[in-house]
Write a structure and sequence with these properties.
This protein is an alpha/beta fold and about 325 residues long. It folds into 2 domains: about 190 residues, 3-Layer(aba) Sandwich (Rossmann fold), CATH 3.40.50.620; about 80 residues, Uridine Diphospho-n-acetylenolpyruvylglucosamine Reductase, domain 3. The protein is built from 11 helices and 11 strands. Strands 3-2-1-4-6-5 form a 6-stranded mixed sheet, sandwiched between helices. A 5-stranded antiparallel sheet has the order 7-8-11-10-9. Helix 4 packs across helix 7.
């Protein structure tokens, strides 16, 4: 396994704990440091983190420079940096043969993620926060407070790097960290961050259960259609809104790679629950029309056929 190491207190404490535990648990443990190149002296910061990893006994230690490109990708600078970082992590997994990368996200990070999702109206998927395991990525510190990782570094004689971006109020996460959460904890009590993290766990369990139901149900109520797919209106109407909208979102994403927002899924659902002869909906990346008891989804600009097609020798998607 590899520790995703930035040199900050959270990942440095995780690196020290991993270096201590790995020899006892069996697997080898190394580190990967991603140099985003976004700040002056970033190469020196990356090398300092690599040196600390080696001194802790981790190996191999990889330093991977990346180029962050936000313009033209539809991403802001934070999202673009994250995309570049995870691409580097994938490269590190391939180069080393490691099975997992450990990330230093803490309970405080989880609480911040939930608050940001709540403020943006992002729905249960966003409010469920970060999972302890997501594919090869593990987050073993989600139950640990940030102050504990700082104390762990102090106790071990480690000097963490202080990322200036972590105190820059231009970033929403920094404002949540430095202003919003402290106010909530002062006014409502010291357990707010923990309560937000518990809420994320509960919502993630609910979302995973509903998503599993959708994956089972969707093939039973969908049919191939010319240049697209058709969903039974009667089947959608028979399901509660939580499943109905998840089915619409799931089909759009799995067939067309489109992530519909809530306003879009509500508009599609009205073709089922409030039908009075509406025309086709032209949504980002997908066109939806109701015909003969089916919702037919296709690429924008495609002229719909009269309904689902069974000419391919199958009646199920």
């Amino acid at each position: 396994m590899l520790v995703g190491l930035s040199g900050g207190a959270d990942s440095l404490a995780l690196a020290a704990a991993t270096a201590f535990e790995a020899p006892r648990a069996g697997p080898g443990a190394g580190a990967v440091i991603v140099d985003h190149g976004l700040q002056h002296g970033s190469a020196e910061v990356a090398e300092a983190a690599a040196r600390q990893a080696r001194e802790l006994g981790l190996g191999p230690v990889l330093v991977l420079p990346v180029t962050v490109q936000a313009e033209g990708a539809g991403e802001g600078p934070e999202a673009a940096a994250r995309s570049a970082r995870y691409a580097a992590f994938d490269r590190a997994l391939a180069e080393t043969g490691a099975r997992h990368i450990l990330l230093g996200h803490t309970l405080d990070d989880q609480a911040e993620t939930v608050l940001l999702g709540l403020a943006r109206g992002s729905g249960p998927t966003s409010l469920s926060g970060m999972a302890a395991q997501n594919g090869p990525y593990l987050r073993p510190l989600l139950g640990i407070r940030r102050r504990q990782t700082r104390q762990a570094c102090l106790d071990a004689g480690l000097v963490p790097w202080e990322d200036p971006h972590n105190s820059d109020p231009r970033y929403g996460r920094v404002r949540v960290r430095d202003t919003v959460l402290p106010i909530l904890e002062r006014e409502l009590g010291p357990g707010v961050a923990g309560a937000l993290a518990r809420t994320a766990d509960q919502l993630r369990e609910d979302a995973e259960a509903l998503d599993a139901l959708v994956r089972e149900l969707a093939p039973e109520i969908c049919e191939p259609a010319e240049a697209g797919i058709a969903i039974s209106v009667a089947a959608l109407a028979a399901n509660p809104p939580a499943l109905r909208q998840r089915i619409i979102r799931f089909v759009a994403e799995s067939e067309f790679g489109v992530s519909l927002e809530r306003v879009h899924t509500l508009a599609v659902a009205r073709l089922v629950t409030d039908w009075h002869g509406q025309g086709a909906l032209d949504l980002p990346g997908v066109r939806v029309v109701r015909q003969h008891g089916w919702l037919i989804l296709s690429r924008p600009g495609h002229a719909h056929s009269k309904g689902p097609s069974r000419s391919h020798g199958t009646s199920r998607h």
